[in-house]
Amino acid sequence: MYEIVVIGNPLYNTIAMPDIETKENLLSGPAVNISHVSAKLGIDNLAIIGAIGNDYREKMVTDLEYLGVPEYYAVESPQTGGFHIHCEDDGLPVLSLLGRARNLRILDIPEEFLDSKYIVLSPAFREIDIELIEWISNSTDAQIVLDTQGMGRDVDSQGMVFPSSNGGKLEQVLELVDVVKMERPLWRIVTDESDPLLAAEFLVEHGTDIGIAMLSSMGSVVYDGDEFYIVPMERSSTRNVIAASDAFLAAFTVGMLQAKNMAERAAFASGAASIVIEHSCAELSFAQDELDYRQQSIIDRIVIK
Question: Over the Cα atoms of the chain, what is R_g?
């Protein structure tokens, strides 16, 4: 049995920052980031499944090995997915679509990967649809964790990425999964709420067991149907918001594996996010030895309602 299986397409992104622009496409994406941080946190029985084109297939093998991801299953795709990410030191990055790997289908998921304690669904750009989620939900005993940001992305006529409710499908999948994380620009659209407590409550009332409303660099609200956990973030700068959110979900899932209580796993997750958010968006740097200090600092400041 696997401990964690992550499903979502790898990305090869280009990144522009105020003082530098990457010369080559860098392996990234929510599924890759979640796998990387989970491995850094000591999860060895871990696999990632995603579609990638032949142009980056060999490079991905080397890059995943460098990131410490122990196992992968590559699905053939006509092209590799990727974004051009324009980053500012303080503010949300702006994404434009470079390429899109194909959607993942039921036949792409070998049965052995359903035998896992946790399955994290982490699409980059709408490659996971409600039919696949429903099939996975009906085919496994695993706890299913959904990162909604890639299901809630669309592009305009210039290829710029913006948040979208995906035709109402995000609300439909809530009853199919056990944990849902949603970013503020998206939960404001899906839930029609401006209050993160009401947004987290909406997620649970519509079917999931645990709803997480992310607040970017300000932290998060976690709701389990009984209590709200208002979770701050320990940080000195805000540079890598997207990868920080991925790190949060990875650590939250690892915290569930380790049977941490809700406050402990929320602080563990926010501590991981606070480490990643301070680094350049051209890298995912994660120092585990810093996590204990940050976790303790955060757990003492969590407000429970």
Answer: 18
Task: Please tell me what DSSP assigns to residue 115.
Answer: S
Q: What are the distances in angstroms from CA 48 to CA 90, 115, 184?
A: 31, 13, 26
Q: Strand, coil or helix: what is 100? A: coil
Q: What is the dihedral of CA 56, 61, 63, 68, to 10 degrees?
A: 150
Provide the sign of the torsion angle of the four alpha carbons 39, 126, 271, 257, taken in this order. negative
Tell me the C-alpha distance between 140 and 56, whole Å.
31
**Is-contact 38 71, C-beta < 8 A?**
no
Neighbours of 27 (CB within 10 A): 24
Q: For residues 16, 17, 21 and 24, what is the CA-based torsion angle, rounded to 10 degrees?
A: -60
Render pLDDT for 257-287 as a digit per residue (tens, 0 to 9): 999 999 999 999 999 999 999 887 777 777 7
Which position has the token pair 């996971």? 128
Please state, in angstroms and rounded to a whole number, the distance separating the CA atoms of residues 259 and 225: 18
DSSP string, 5-35: EEES--EEEEEEETTEE-SS-EEE-HHHHHH
Distance CA 115, CA 56 (A): 28
Q: Which of 105, 6, 1 is nearest to 47 (CA)?
A: 6
Coil/strand/helix, residue 222: strand
Phi, psi of 155 (to 5 degrees): -130, 150
What confidence tens digit (pLDDT) does each residue in 109-125 have? Answer: 999 999 999 999 999 99
| Residue with the larger pLDDT of the pair 207 and 168 | 207
CA distance 206 to 222: 15
Least confident of 13-17, 103-107, 169-173, 227-231: 13-17
Compute the distance between CA of residue 156 and CA of residue 274 in angstroms, rounded to an integer: 31
